[in-house]
Design goal:
Elements (H helix, E strand, L loop, with lengths): L1 E6 L2 E8 L2 E4 L2 E3 L1 E5 L5 E6 L2 E11 L2 E6 L2 E9 H10 L11 E2 L4 E6 L6 E2 L4 E7 L2 E6 L4 E6 L6 E2 L4 E6 L9
Antiparallel strand pairs: 1-2, 1-9, 2-3, 3-4, 5-6, 6-7, 7-8, 8-9, 10-17, 11-13, 11-16, 12-15, 13-14, 15-17
């Protein structure tokens, strides 16, 4: 199976054939081990092992921490990528995407205010689900336009929690 992995803005082609892993067509030694029910994994690439912790997910994009460093990662298979290319869905929509609940849960805390400019990786909302708190973080620089939830509110999967607008270019104001 062939996958396209976007880490930050770099796209990597990964092919998995049985036990073999090819990265950009070159074989690599790779194994991923994790405890059932946990989002903590050990990823071995070649002779190095990395601690990988999966975080909040919005659509196909997930925040991931590797050896303590945060990354925005998108994983799509070859079929999904072709469909996106054919439908034009690969082109990003104008403006930053809204933050949606990754699963049903309860809003514990809203960490931003309307009008606030947020930076990539900044905490936005904490949602409790299955007795675990999940901090949803900003993917890109954006300005909070609408906060659609409040602490104590129950939310459903894919419910929009926050909406954004693109920040004004330097030197311009409205």
């Amino acid at each position: 199976m062939r996958y396209f992995v976007t880490i930050q803005d770099e796209v990597l082609e990964v092919e998995v054939v049985g036990d073999r892993v090819l990265l950009a067509g070159e074989p690599v030694e790779a194994t991923l081990h994790g405890a059932p029910g946990s989002n903590v994994h050990a990823l071995r690439l070649g002779h190095r092992t990395h601690a990988v912790v999966g975080g909040a997910r919005v659509g196909d994009v997930r925040s991931v921490h590797v050896d303590g460093q945060a990354f925005r990662v998108e994983l799509v298979d070859e079929r999904t990528r072709r469909v996106r290319e054919m439908t034009g869905a690969a082109a990003s929509a104008a403006g930053p995407k809204p933050v949606k609940a990754p699963m049903p849960g309860l809003v514990v805390k809203v960490e931003v205010a309307v009008g606030e400019t947020v930076q990539p990786g900044q905490g936005l909302v904490i949602v409790e689900a299955m007795k675990m708190e999940n901090e949803l973080r900003a993917e890109v620089e954006a300005v909070v336009e609408h906060i659609l939830v409040e602490p104590g509110q129950a939310v459903e999967k894919d419910q929009i929690l926050l909406d954004f607008r693109a920040p004004e270019p330097e030197g311009e104001s409205v």
